[in-house]
Structures are given as structure tokens and as C-alpha cells.
């Protein structure tokens, strides 16, 4: 059974930084495309950043230059480094996995709150 477990969320002041991690199990991690999505209260879930099995990366325009996605296949973990955080970044952040067989998996999410 595939499990994705996020960690690293919390409360941070505007301009601060947080690092999220997503540990995967029950899957051949290196073959999956991985990503981070977020959902703010009352809004739809949107893509933040994705990284393919071949390390091709995409970012939402709103986070370009501030967020960095990376992966460590040896640790079955994908990361999201978030710098220069803004109140608009407040959301539940979800880890996402897409397998080579087009199966999609989600983590349960971790809350990031940016407030002074």
C-alpha cells in the first residue's frame, strides 16, 4: 500500500522560511513523478511544484524564485524548500505521486500558516 507522509508545516512570519518533506513507502519511488499541491480555505487545490522521475521541474508562477522542489531517491523523499513566505502562501500542502501506471496518490497534508 502506497503511503505519503508530509512533515515540516507550521506557523511562520511573513518573509520566513519552511522546509516540507514527504516520505513515500510502498512504491518504487524513483519511478514516480512527485509534486506538491496546496489548498487554501475555500479554494481549489492547486499545483505548487512538480518533479518528474527524470528530474524535470515545474513551478506555479506564484512561487517561482521562492520555492525549490527536490527529491532524494535513496531516501524515498521529496522536499519543498519555501523562502520569502507570504500570507497568500497559507494553505494545507499535499504531497502527490503519479506512478508509471497512472496511479495517483495523495498524502494527508500539512498546514502552513504565514502570519505576523
The secondary structure category is: mainly beta
Shape: globular
Report the span from N to C terminus: 40 Å
Q: What number is the mean pLDDT?
A: 97
Low-confidence stretches: none
What is the succession of H and E elements?
EEEEEEEEEEE
Oligomer: single chain
The share of residues in helices is under 10%
Major sheet: size, sense and barrel closure? 7 strands, mixed
**How many E-type strands?**
11
Comma- or semicolon-separated keywords:
0% helix; 11 strands; 7-stranded mixed beta sheet; mainly beta; 4-stranded antiparallel beta sheet; 116 residues; single chain
Write a brief caption for the model.
The chain has 116 residues and is mainly beta.
Q: Would you kindly provide a written description of the structure presented here, covering whatever features stand out?
A:
This protein is mainly β. It contains no helices and eleven strands. The strands form two sheets. Strands 2, 4, 5, 6, 9, 10 and 11 form a seven-stranded mixed beta sheet that branches. The radius of gyration is 13 Å and the shape is globular.
Amino acid at each position: 500500500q502506497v503511503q505519503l507522509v508530509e512533515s515540516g508545516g507550521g506557523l511562520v512570519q511573513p518573509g520566513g522560511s519552511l522546509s516540507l518533506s514527504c516520505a513515500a513507502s510502498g512504491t518504487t519511488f524513483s519511478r514516480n513523478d512527485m509534486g506538491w499541491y496546496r489548498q487554501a480555505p475555500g479554494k481549489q487545490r492547486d499545483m505548487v511544484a512538480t518533479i518528474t522521475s527524470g528530474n524535470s521541474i515545474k513551478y506555479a508562477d506564484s512561487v517561482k524564485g521562492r520555492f525549490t522542489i527536490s527529491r532524494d531517491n535513496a531516501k524515498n523523499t521529496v522536499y519543498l524548500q519555501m523562502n520569502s513566505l507570504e500570507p497568500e502562501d497559507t494553505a494545507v500542502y499535499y504531497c502527490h505521486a503519479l506512478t508509471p501506471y497512472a496511479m495517483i496518490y495523495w498524502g494527508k497534508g500539512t498546514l502552513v500558516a504565514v502570519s505576523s
